[in-house]
Amino acid sequence: MKQTHYVAREPDEQGFIHYTDTEHAVWNTLVTRQLKLVQGRACQEYLDGIEQLALPHDRIPQLAEINQVLSGTTGWQVARVPALIPFQTFFELLASKRFPVATFIRTPEELDYLQEPDIFHEIFGHCPLLTNPWFAEFTHTYGKLGLAASKEQRVFLARLYWMTIEFGLVDTPRGRRIYGGGILSSPKETLYSLSDAPEHQAFDPLECMRTPYRIDILQPLYFVLPELKRLFDLAHQDIMALVAHAQQLGLHAPKFPPKAA
């Protein structure tokens, strides 16, 4: 496993995680800025989740506050984790309806990009949609499949996760919208993903699994769901048969240049 650059915060004896004033100020900057940008760009199911979570603006929320809302809507919880966790732990958590949240926040110097997902990315990007039963069902199924998958199969599942949960778009009666947490927690990608610059393709899980990606660039391609419920329907398909088919067909050529050494 890669070495992390960040240190997750440990709770005190009462389970309370203490953050500095600077860290709370970073949260405030990120939340205030991003809430403006997602209006009219995020899908309604995400915006409904944001409303239910009622995230504080002046401080980083405690995980117990998030858990109260998630458990009351879909039965999910968030789980405190170190900055980086192994695939195995990740799948174990999702399979038990617990979403991993690293309890550190980026520095003021890293407002726009950091190398690993922090508490803002996980809570603002992903937790609102975990209040939605379709999204929650897909994420739970994904965790159970990943737990039983081989190392080789997990790589194909990871691409499906990347193209949906992290960087997915969806068509709605009001136009194309964002549901992927990797986009919704990034100001630059929120604007870019819906522009004419990247390629948009109709969602196809097999194609998602065959499409290489890089984590450190704006995505050259986004897959667009016909509706968010398509994720729920996918959860009830034979996803591992699709993985086997994708393995057989192999990967598409990357749509991006190789990473500089």
Label the structural class.
alpha/beta
Residue-averaged pLDDT, rounded? 96
Helix content: 40-55%
Got a strand count?
A: 6
Number of helices: 12
CA distance, first residue to last residue: 20 Å
Largest sheet geometry: 4 strands, mixed
The largest sheet has its strands arranged as 4-3-6-5
Structural notes for this entry:
With 261 residues, the protein is an alpha/beta fold. It has one domain: Phenylalanine Hydroxylase, CATH 1.10.800.10. The protein has twelve helices and six strands. The strands form two sheets. The chain has a four-stranded mixed beta sheet with strand order 4-3-6-5. It has a two-stranded parallel ribbon with strand order 1-2. Helix 10 (205-209) links the parallel strand 5 and strand 6 (221-225).
How would you concisely characterize the structure shown here?
This protein is α/β, with parallel strands linked by helices and 261 residues long. It has helices at residues 21-38, 44-53, 63-73, 87-95, 119-126, 133-148, 151-166, 181-184, 187-193, 205-209, 229-235, 239-249; strands spanning 77-81, 98-102, 169-172, 175-178, 199-202, 221-225. The protein has one domain (21-249): Phenylalanine Hydroxylase, CATH 1.10.800.
Furnish the topology, listing elements before pairings.
Layout: H1 21-38, H2 44-53, H3 63-73, E1 77-81, H4 87-95, E2 98-102, H5 119-126, H6 133-148, H7 151-166, E3 169-172, E4 175-178, H8 181-184, H9 187-193, E5 199-202, H10 205-209, E6 221-225, H11 229-235, H12 239-249
Parallel strand pairs: 1-2, 3-6, 5-6
Antiparallel strand pairs: 3-4
Helix pairs in contact: 4-6, 6-11
